[in-house]
Amino acid sequence: MEFLSSLISMPWLDYSISGLVIGSIYALMAVGLALIFGVANLINFAHGAVFTVGAYIGWTCLVGLGLPLGVTIVAVAAVSGGVGALIEWLAIRPLNRQSRIAPLLATIGVALMLDQIIHIVFSPTPRALPANIPDWRIAVGNGTIGAIDITIFATAVISAAALYAFLFRTKLGMAVRATAQDDDAAKQMGVNINAVNMTVFGIAGALGGIAGLLVGLYYNSIDPNASFQMMLKGMVAIVIGGMANVPGAIGGGLILGLIESWGIGLFGASYRNLFAFVLLLVMLLFRPNGIFARGKERAAEPMTGTFVTQTKAITLPRPLIWVLIGVAVILPMANMPYITQVMTNAYLYGLAALALTLVSGTVGLVSIGHAALVAIGAYASALLTTKGLPVSLGIVIGGAAAALIGTALAYPAFRLRGHYVAIGTLALGEIVALVILNWEGVTNGALGVFAIPPLEIFGLPLYGTKASYWFVLALMLGMAGLQVRLLKSHLGRTWKAIREDTVAAETYGVSSNYYKGLAFGFAGFTAGIAGAVTAHQWSFINYDSFNLLFSVLILTMAILGGLGNVSGAILGAILVAALPEMFRTLAEYRMLFYGAALVILIRFRPQGLLGSG
Amino acid sequence: MAEPILTATGITRRFGGITAVDGVDLHVAEGEFLSVIGPNGAGKTTLFNLISGQDRMDGGKVTLEGRDITNLSPHKMAEIGVARTFQHGRVFGNLTVMDNVLIGCHVRMKAARSTVPVIGPVLELGKALIQPKAVREEEEAMREEARAIIATFGERLTPRTDNPTYTLSYANRRRVEIARALALHPRILILDEPTAGMNESETAEMQEIIAGLKAEGRTILLIEHKLNMVMQLSDRVMAMDDGKVISHGTPSEVRHDPKVIEAYLGHSSIGGARPAARDNAEPQEVITAGPTQGRIGRTGGAEA
Amino acid sequence: MSLFRERAALSRRAFGRIALAAMVTTAAGAHADSPPAPVFIGVSGPVTGPHAQYGAQWKQGFDLALAKINANGGIDGRPLAYVFEDSQNDPRQTIAIAQKFIADPKIAVEVGDFSSTSSMAASPLYQRGGLVQFGFTNSHPDFTRTGDYMWSNNVPQSEEQPLVARHVVEDLGMQKIAVMYLNTDWGKTSKDLFTAAATDLGAEIVAEEAYLGDEKDFRATLVRVRDAAPDGIMLVSYYNDAALIVRQLRDLGMEQTVFAAGANSPEFVELAGEAGNGVHTAMNFAPMSPRPMVQDFVAAFEAEYGSAPSHFSAMAYDTFNLLAAVMRQYGTGRDDIRDGLGQISGLESVIFPEVSFDPETRRISNPSVTELVVMDGGYVPYSGAGQ
Q1: Smallest CA–CA separation between A391 and chain C, in Å?
Q2: CB B290 to CB A300 under 8 A?
Q3: What pLDDT, in 10s, does the model give residues A201-250?
Q4: CA-CA distances (angstroms) from residue B78 to A416, B48, B141, B182?
Q5: A/B touch flag: 3 or more CB pairs below 8 Å
Q6: Is the peptide bond before C335 cis (omega within 30 degrees of 0)?
Q7: Residues from chain C contacting residue A269 (CB–CB below 8 Å)
């Protein structure tokens, strides 16, 4: 009843105004993402970093050089447009004919590098970006609207109009549209695809940079860590508007802003991202073409091709595998607990990467929400064992819980494909984290779970550095062995058939949802025990222990090793966990080198180091 | 005429304002060879998609041996013995020839058919992990059978049994598709332009294989543009245009039907004379996920 | 929750410096001839990643403290030095660093990490390894509970919040309070303790609004707050959130008195601009305190870095001085330091006029707070009603 009365008495106008203002910022982000998705068929994870570049160029011009706002906007557009074009030229173009996962990973690497450069050049501290915009405000409803709100809204509208004019009134714009429709046909008609792609990345970059500047002015604060959140919101906006639909992206941004704002009005700010991601899931499941699509019919989904390249995987010779296992087993004897710990971490990552490579590589459901499975396993075991359940049982139950809950949550997403799966699972991952944060009665909310009992098996303590190393190694090798066995059985070919061509597989009697469920279940179990073991090792976890970054890292490992490749996942995990440790000597430059290493690896081994399995 | 094994009545499918298939009736008897011909866009593939469950019909009814199978999902269709090949060939590129054919065996594998409801999935995983004797023997038997099926394509496929199919020539991939369909032990075999994109000698080879299948007494539905082949193989021929059946009868009856000749002339393209049927423009194969569709949704393009 | 948390940075001063493996800072010059082996403190903290700003602030405080300690003879003639390992505030890396420090016999004591997520994951290792983990930014109520090697001079919120509540209710006269808090262990704990104390003092809590760490737009939340009709607003926020909230609050035409926990950092003043004026805050560290020790620190800091010290820099400075005092008095063995921490008393620091630990909770006893008001781009001490 209280809810109903608040629904009626809510100051809708005030919430709507605040929603439209934040929505126009989302819209500016979304326009660039939609353009790039339309032309390059790619979710540009570096778009958020370009946003941040724009903010800092703006700061340099306005505060550092004291330039007027007009000049600043032009400079921001030029520099961030240039950065966008450079991304296309350096990271995307060389991967032109590769499986589509390769450029995706390249954009992640570029984003790491750009953010890092900004950290180094401008320091990680948030800065003030005072606007020299007249400080008048007019009262609307019970609040006020100022010049800056109108500037942001107007910039969004003007950018959209300019873009529209470009797309429909210029020759290059026509080439862009032609390429978006069918790049092969456009190429045959003499369109220079490379020029079109570069133009689009440039325009998107300029728009993203301007968005960064405006947001900085709006909040009087720029922050090198803001990029990814903004990119996510832009992504939700383009899903709402229709992935490659540019005007739709603007509408999507505004709708997202409004819904968030109303949602906060009804439930509070701690749920803001929950609304965004639930909305995203609902859209994906029921209106995958966006809210502005006319027909109800589902058009062809954008990513029907497989993420996996057609190359032969490298099979490690058996003797080599045994030698490597032997080395791994005797490693702790060297008595270097730091190395032992780093490798234990790597194997825990390895377990999660095994799970992901099964789902994303073998079955083709690219998941960016895998941390959720790990978190479910960790929380299930942590909560039960702190209430007295034996640890060994807790780990198994953690695995089972991740398998069951994870599969049930992901089930609706099984009908999605390609990028849509990736976005859908990303949303699921965020939703799980937010539920953990907000469901205080069960999860202890923000305080996390403390005093989780240490690792032990049937009373045998395993918390020593070496013991836990061997335990985790055995677990990883065991699960890898089981996975290899599954891949050799009828399930292996059945899963790959679904990945290669779901329709043909269904036609031959393969119930794809059922087999996707089996894969998710097994992978969920692996990921769940990885989470449970981690929880017992750390003794403390909270909602942020397994965050989106963790999901992205695991995906990076799986791609780097070769999607679907069991030994590749382990190799990828060891590399990704060990590389930053090796770059430790580089101090603040280490993540820059890590990003560059990713971009270079994917450039020369787009199918992964060991090839896709 | 023998009792029909498959009967379709009044099949209708509309795409927006266009009626792609308009009240088509069709029946095939056990061991019969029925071909469907017609110009591009006549609705042949759509019709086959509806019969084999890839697409849902707006009206009509399909029965197989008296059982209503209207709008059954594709994997259920496969379970009751409807096997089809695709117009453009849809083999699983990263799977070997052997694995492709084994997918055809999927519906017959006991290891994949757990009858226990709730713990069925766990049982299937468990069997795959433990590989008990029964499972191993079944797998080996299937492999044996798959090898035999592959052998019917002679030197074309046998040496390539363990190669991934993306390394195969187009013609060989079409052969793999047929081998995969045969592995299903189909009650009805539906072939959608099995010789599309093949040269003359390849076509002749394929025709020989299909003739062999017919000789084994299989029930076959065929879409084909190469009229010579249709005339030589078919027991009966159905001609379609604009979603409707325009002629129906023995090969020679249909061939000489003025309506058929006019339909082809009107479309200025007689089957067999045109190059590879790869850029066919009719609503293709499967609406949910055709790989040939543009990336940008029909309604959500940058031009919206 | 923001993704690319694994990113690096350092202070702008450090930009251009040659990156060294571990940033080993030794007090060269103090003992030029046949230098005795230094005593090492192992620091685990964020040098790169989204929390890198805090690591940079720590480092300023550490360096300043070392210069002073080593100029005064170090630890019984041995120079004090530190090894700063970058954890990116990531628990996976803090546990690896813990192994490194525990196994390295030259490390006498460990300091850090930044958040409870990353620090507490390493606590069992430090406890079993017998190395003191001194978490000077760890406010999580359970941080010191892992074992007797976990110590913290971070003011326990259970002590601080009642003081804040008294100030807010009695001095500032808030009777209907709206609380906005960061939904983290620190924010949640502080909020709960504050609301309990304020309610005991007779005030009414009319709204409690949680928000997430990377939130930027608070307008919708503020509409909720406004409609609860509070006569005062309490922010349990970091300085950047506090600045954003205060600006947006004034834009919405809300004129209530604001107390902001995070407004005690110089960056708040810059980020909040005009809107920051008149915002109340409290600080354990009071840069305008007349105590000579504080004034010396502030002057030295400004001379070295050209800016006012932040709370984190002051904490870092205090921590090294405290550990140096413990080592001088009780020895540099790992267990000597653990035992010494429980015994030391009467030590003056820039934050606390007198430091001593409760050996049971291993936290600071009887801390005090200084109440401040933001005024014209700086801070002035709160001096009664009318401000």
Answers
A1: 16
A2: yes
A3: 999 999 899 889 988 888 888 888 778 888 888 988 988 888 777 888 88
A4: 23, 14, 20, 12
A5: yes
A6: no
A7: 209-212, 215, 218, 220-221
Query: Cβ of C9 and A124 within 8 Å?
Result: yes
pLDDT digits (tens, 9 = 90+) for A450-494: 889 988 887 788 878 889 999 999 999 999 999 999 999 999 999
Q: What angle do CA A514, A515, A520 make, to 5 degrees?
A: 100
Which residues on adjacent β-strands are paired with residue C235?
C180, C260
State the best of B72, B102, B103 to mutate against chain A, taking most chain A CBs within 10 Å: B103
Interface of A with B in 497-516 (CB under 8 A): 497, 499-512, 514
Amino acid at C248: Q
Whether chains C and A touch (3+ CB pairs under 8 A) is answered by yes
Domain boundaries, chain B: 4-91+186-279, 93-167
Contacting subunits of C (3+ beta carbon pairs below 8 A): A
Q: In the CATH hierarchy, which fold is given to the domain comprising B4-91+186-279?
A: Rossmann fold (3.40.50)
User: Bridge-partner residues for B14, per DSSP?
Assistant: B19
Distance of alpha carbon C212 from alpha carbon A287, whole angstroms? 29
Q: What tokens appear for A92 in the block? A: 């995307």
Other Cβ atoms within 10 Å of C216 Cβ, number: 18
Asked if B294 lies within 8 A of A182 by C-beta distance, the reply is yes
Tell me the CATH number for domain C39-155+293-355.
Answer: 3.40.50.2300
Residues 592-611 of A with CB under 8 A from B: none
- In what helix (H) or strand (E) does residue B208 lie, and over which residues does it extend? helix B200-215
Per-residue pLDDT tens digits for B276-300: 333 333 333 333 333 333 332 222 2
Please indicate whether, in this complex, the C-beta atoms of A591 and C187 are within 8 angstroms of each other. no
Q: Cβ contacts (< 8 Å) between C145 and chain A: which residues? A: 450-451
The chain-wide mean pLDDT, for chain B, equals: 81
The residues spanned by each domain of chain C are 39-155+293-355, 157-283+370-381
Rounded alpha-carbon distances, angstroms, from residue C228 to A261, C12, C206, C210, C222 = 17, 43, 6, 15, 10
Q: Which CATH architecture has domain C157-283+370-381?
A: 3-Layer(aba) Sandwich (3.40)
Residues from chain A contacting residue B16 (CB–CB below 8 Å): 295
ipTM surpassing 0.95: no
The C-alpha of C281 sits at a distance from chain A's nearest C-alpha, in angstroms, of 20
Please write the tens of the pLDDT for every residue from A138-183: 776 666 677 777 877 787 778 778 888 888 888 888 888 887 777 7
Is there a common fold for C39-155+293-355 and C157-283+370-381? yes
User: What residues does each domain of chain A span?
Assistant: 29-227, 335-548
B90 to A501: CB separation less than 8 angstroms, yes or no: yes
Give residue C91's identity as a one-letter amino acid code.
Answer: P
- CA gap C333, C323 in Å, rounded: 12
CA gap A154, A162 in Å, rounded: 12
Instruction: Please judge whether A180 and B112 are an interchain contact, meaning their C-beta atoms are less than 8 angstroms apart.
Output: no
Q: B194 and B206 in contact (C-beta within 8 Å)?
A: yes
Nearest C-alpha neighbor of A419 from the set A16, A2, A4, A41: A41
> For B88-135, how does the pLDDT look when each residue is reduced to its tens digit (9 = 90+)?
778 888 899 999 999 999 988 887 776 666 788 888 888 888 888 988
Query: DSSP readout, C120-161?
Result: HHHHHHHHHHT--EE-TT---TTGGGS-TTEE--SPPHHHHH
Residues of C whose CB is below 8 A from A270: 183, 209-212
